[in-house]
Here is the input.
Amino acid sequence: MGNLFGKHILIIMPKSQFCEQELNGVRSTLEQSGANVVVLSKSGQEARSVNNEKFQPNGMIVDWNKQIGISGKYHAIILVGGKGAKKSLWDDPIIPQILTDHYRFGSIIGAMGTATVVLVRASLVKGEVPRPEDDITYNELINLNAVCVDLPVTSFENVVLGQGGNSVNQFSQTIISLL
Here is the structure.
């Protein structure tokens, strides 16, 4: 399981109303594989999930490049969704810049559920997008001319997209195999 030792992975989460199944599932799988995982949100403050679970991120998104023990680029950046993604991630001005910079560098870029909209808006998705579990996200992706398919996970080059909480395991394994 220790094949990701020395790999630095950034997970960006909504500042509230995050999907704990996505966050906890992806984070624990990557950590169990030996990766150093940093979780950031817009506010950096304790967040509550959709099911009222509390989580304390490591800091704020604006400090993405100031994390202890990490110099240079992350090996992967993953966005997790939840109801709060629409408010705190979809229109964030910093996240697309971080994603585009890392994409060009060759890092793995991933998003789950409602957070897939951010990658589509940043023009980083060249293939198909898993059909999200909620209609608001689905309609936004259709408005952005994304091609939604009934698959739990899609990947193209260094971009991996997951449908949501039910695809965490397959999504995480795809990230691990690409790293």
